[in-house]
Every structure is written in C-alpha cells, then in structure tokens.
Task: structure prediction
Amino acid sequence: MAPATATAKASSVGRIVWLLFISIMVPAVNVGVHGLIFWFFRDSPLHPIANALLAVAWGAAGVYSIFWSLNWVVEQYPDVWKRRILPFIYVGPAVLLLGWLLVIPTVRTLYLSFFDASSQTFVGLANYAAVFTDRLLATALRNNLLWVFFGTTLCVCLGLLIAILADRSSFERLAKTIVFMPMAISYVAAGVIWKFVYYYTPEERQIGLLNAIVKAFGGEPQAWLTMVQPWNNLFLIVILVWMQTGFAMVFFSAAIKNVPDDILEAARVDGAGELRIFFRIIIPYISGTILSVTTTIIVFTLKIFDVVMVMTGGQYGTEVVATQFYRQLFMYQNAGYGSTLAIVLLIAVTPVIWFNLRQFRREGGF
Amino acid sequence: MRRSRVRRKGNRLVNIVLAVICVIWLIPTIGLLISSFRPAADILSTGWWTIFPHRDWQTVERIELPRETDLRQPIEVLGATYTDEELRAGVTVDGRRLIWENRRARIVSVQEKRWTTTLRFTLQNYETVLGGKQYKIALPDGSTKTEQGSGMGRSFWNTVAVAVPSTIIPVFIASFAAYAFAWLRFPGRRVMFVIIVALLVVPLQVALIPILRDYTVLGLNGTYFGIWLAHSAFGLPLITYFMYNAVRQIPRDLFESAFMDGASNFTTFSRLVLPLTVPSLASICIFQFLWVWNDYLVALIFLGSLPDVQVLSMNIAGLAGSRGNDWHLLTAAAFVSMLMPLAVFFTLQRYFVRGLMGGSVKG
Result:
C-alpha cells in the first residue's frame, strides 16, 4: 500500500508540475508565435493581395487557436477548477479587449477633460465652460442640434410614409430595395454622390444636377455647400436622410405588417377613412417601434462625422461636435477640448444608455 | 387570402407617389454610375443626363468671316449685324442660334435645336483610379494632361485585409463570450453583461484619445493589427449582445444531452452552438463587415493615409479633398468602393436586413 501512495503522490506532484508547466507555456507560446507573426507583418514588403490573404488567415486561425489551446490547458485541470476557470477563458478575451479599448479609455477621457491642452495642468471645468462659450464650438453644438432635429424628423416621417405606401403598392419589394440600398454604401461614397449633385461651376453649363434643375426653372445656380449659410447644413442633412430613411422604413414596414387585420377591418366596417386609420390605429399600434427607431437615429446623428468631413471638412459653418473633436485633437493638439467634446457626446447619449438598461432588465435580463 | 382583402393593394395614386420617391432615391446613384463611364472631357462640359436624348443646339453650318473683321465694330453675319458680346453669348434668330465657334479665326457657327445624345463611354476612369501609374487624359479644351493614378486597386486589397479579420476576430471572441454568458455560471457575470449593454451606444470618440496614446507607445499606429483590435473592441458590445440573444434561443435539452454524452464545453460550442446559430452569425458578420468596410473615422485615426495601408474610404476622402473637381476620378473611385457593399446587399439582403435590425444600436 505504501508504495502505491508514494506513486500516487509522485504522480500527483508530477501532475501539478505538468499543469503549471502548460499553464505558463501555452500562453507564452501563444504570445510568442503571434508576436512573431505580427512582427513579420509589420515589416514585410509583401504584395498587397498576398498580404491581405495572409492577414485574413492569421486573423481567423489565430483567434481560434488561442481559444483552442487555452481551453485545452483548462481541460487538463481537476473538475472543480475546470468549472471555475473555464468561463473566464471564454469571456476573457472579450472582457480584456473591452476593458482596454473601451471602458478604461472612457474613464481616462473623462479624466483628461479636466486637464489643459497638453494634459499637464488640472483646469477643473474650464474646458466645459469653453466648449459652451467658444464661438466655433458653439457653432458645432448648434449644428448638431440641427442635425438631430431635422435629420431625425425627416428620416422618421419619410420612413413612415414610404413604409405605408409600399405596404399598399404593387411593387413593394422593389421600392423597399431601392430606398434601402443607400444603407449599404459608405458615407464617404454617399458624400461623393451628393457632392456631384450639388456641384456648382461659375461657368454657363452646370454639370451638377441640382443647379441644372434650378437653371431649367429660370433660377440662379448656387454654390449650395459653401454660400448659403446656415442652410448649407440642411443640404448635408439631406444626405443623412437619403441614407437612413431606408433603415427607418424597414422597421416601420415590419411593424405595420404586424398590425392585426381584424382591427383594420373593424375600423373600415365602422366607416373610418384611410387617414383616420393611419393616425388613430396604425401610429399608436407601432409607437414602440417609432420610439426605438427615433432614439437609434438620434444616437447615430449625434455622432455624425463622415458626411461633414468629406463634403466640407467642417468649413463654411458646417462644423459638428465629432468633426470639431477631430480638429481639436489633430490640428490644434488640444487633448483637453477634444476629451471634453467626446464627453459631451457621451452625456448626450446617457439617457439612451439608461433606457437600454431598463429595457434589458424588464425583458428578464438574467 | 385574408390579407389581400383587408389591405388594398395597388392603388394607382399610391403607386405613382411611391414611384416618384423611388426615382428621386435612385437618381443620385445613377448619375454617379453613368458619369464614371464618361470621358473626362464630357463629364466636365455636359451633365450626365445628356446621354439621354434631349434637344440641344447642334452646329448645322459654319460661316467664316473675313479674317480682318474688326470685333469692336458691329459684325455682319447673314445679312444682319451683331456685337461681339452677342456672338459670344449666342443670339437666336428664327430658331437658329449664332455663336462664335472660334473667335480668333472668325468662325461663327449656325446652330439649330435638334434631338441629340452624347453616347461616349470609356473605361479609362477606372483604369486611372485603380492603377498607380501615370495616365494621359484629354481635357474639354482639347489639350491633354498627365495625371497620377490613385491606386484604388491597392486600397481595395488593404480594405479586405482590414475588414475580414476585423469581422472574424470579434465574432469569434463575442460568440465564446456569449456562450459563457448564456450557459455558464461564474462570479461577475451579471455586472459584465450590464456593462456590455451599457456600452452598446457609447460613442467611440470617448475612447479614441487614450487608445491613440497607448498605440503610439506600443507602435501599433498605422498597422493592420492595431486597427483589427480597435474595430474588434468597438464591435464587441453589439456582437456579444446579438450572439447572446441567439445562443439563449437554443433549447436547454440540447445542451443537457450533449453534456450527458460527455461533450466538453469546447466541443459543445464548436459542434452544437456554432452550427445552430449560423443564420445569426451570418447576419452579424455581414453587419460588422460592411460597418468596417464603410468606416472612415477609425481608419483615419489609427491607420492613416500611407498608400501601403490606406483603405478605400481614406483614398476617396483624400481624392475629394485634393482633386475635388476631377469628377471622372471621383465618380469611378466612389463606385469602386460601393462594389462590395452593393454585391453583399443584393446577394445577402435577407441576412443584411436581419443583422441591421438586430444591430441598429451600434456605437
């Protein structure tokens, strides 16, 4: 019996050493291998196509192999430990990545917003005071309000109108595809599309569609994006409406199809007109969808950046908070103002965060 | 069916209004597409709509005036006299227009309104935009100019190298996390998930400055690896939330029988969860892929505009800034960047809409 215990002890010591060994080696090998590959990529003068394909292969296989190898290590542990540690292997990468690149930076940005341009001296709330009084920054805030108000209103109203029209038309699918299509392309490409529509030349022949139409009706061609301040903001907002209406429409269309037929039928039997049905039955019935689509578009519009950047670069009085953030950060090297603007955006979406959390808890959450 | 009786389909007024809206929605894109195939000289001198039949002044006759005609005096053409200004702007007489064709050579052209189209198309714009070499193009005034290609071909592959791993990495990571959140019990689970839900709408601007500083220290600025991590982190809250909802839908019995058969968590995940959530995976992959493909802000800040890493959106934004009047290049470039999203949109529309509806709250 004694030798048996001894071997058991020896083997359990061996087992612990083995577990320790793999627990250290596997992560180390992972770091080493992927570090080397990263090194190779950073300095390799490969052909772009080869580079892209290799990068793709590494990105996919790398992540899977990390999970697989760490999982293999934990599988060697005794059951109790396995059950305790395994969940952290699974959520670990997500939590680390989110912590490093979202949660901690948010706190750091908040901290930086109380410091001066070079993040050296504590200035209290001075940056916040500046953001709301400085002329340029105030323009950005005003324009963001314009964006949120007009952009969201137009998207929601048009989306609702098109959804209801499509529902009663004979080419529903086609119409929805056409209106939805701009959703797929980038804001940069959409910027180019609309820049071409708004294009103005001082010459006789206008090659921009809008000016050609204005001229055909006897009007005077205009440099829409630069001259007519502050209305040029509206011409930029049109681009957002063109892109986001399809998004609102898809949601509304799905919601409208959920309105029970018997309610509509009962209303018709009682002699209600189509308009009355729309305002008294359909709108109240889909009010939940309208609310969530509206908040989503508001959140999106608050952060609008690409369109303004590509169309005007924020000049001619079209600055918004996100472009001003970029300008403060990169052109004026003012980390204080930059952070403050980012925090202003964060504060603006706080009600939505709160709303999401409440919704999550109400749906049962955990 | 019942539905067709209750919902009146195909009202004529509805159809007309909707058709008008659809045309308005399509026209900007069509204008871009048509223009991208027109020669540079044509784009800059006539609107893209002139490829459709339209009535325009066409030269029917040329009149050569004596070379010594004094332009400061009234000029006699076809028995009437006109001033130089009138001939420069064009004067209309009995439905015919007189205008200088070549003022220095004293040639006046007599024009009539006729049906016409300008049907000249070319692939030159795409060649210039895709390649990185030097190209000769003709200008409206007849001269030629050499211009540098804008290397969109290279940018296209750079975008692939950015977008595909930036999709796969977070989807993998988030799926593992979603599995743990949905089916494993561990301390901190609730707090972590609440934070993820809260992060759904956080504007990514709040994270940029500190990340930029970390990246500068680590030498990750301008590398693919850096932007993969950034895109992964920014996409994670949404993808985790989306996948959590998908994984939670899987019936409990399936898991229990899998564990009964002695399957490990990893096996269960790879053999049971992944195959059962394929539609959700496809939707969220497409959503994230297009998000990254179309992204401009993150690329602008972390990747920059060096030709060997810059992505399509950076390239176009650069073109729009530096060569904002070269419409033959801009239109072709914009269309190149739209190819992938449009292809995805038209082939995988169902998944795309699903992903979008689930992923509407992205920050």
About this structure: Chain A has a mean pLDDT of 83.
